[in-house]
Amino acid sequence: MNRKPILLLGLCLLSMAGGEARANDLEYCAELTAMYRKYLGQTSSRQTMPDVTASTAIDACERGNTAAGIPVLEKRLTDQRFTLPSRS
Asked: Among the four 28, 57, 78, 81, which has the fewest Cβ within 10 Å?
């Protein structure tokens, strides 16, 4: 039996699943970014300097590097006791 078509089908299915997961990560990263900007993004009298680490994470999300952006934004938000949006 020729296994080549089965292998190609498997690879196609994996790449499609990876694309969907990537789209979900981009959407989740955008939600975290919006939440951070809305609630924590403005400097206040207590914080005179912007959070460069969070800004770098937001930039990573916007460039598609969700692996770098998501953990940082999740930590910043949970450190301030925010409930994170559900991840689809």
From this structure: 81
* Residue 10 to residues 3, 6, 14, 36, 62, Cα–Cα distance (Å): 11, 6, 6, 39, 30
Residue type at 28 in one-letter notation: Y
Residue 40 within any structural domain of the chain? yes
Q: Is the pTM of this model over 0.90?
A: no
Question: What DSSP string runs through 66-85?
Answer: HHHHHHHHHHHHHHTTPPPP
pLDDT tens-digit readout, 7-24: 444 544 444 445 566 789
Q: What is the pLDDT of residue 14?
A: 45
Longest C-alpha distance within the chain, in Å? 71
Rounded to a whole number of angstroms, the distance between the first and last alpha carbons of the chain is 39
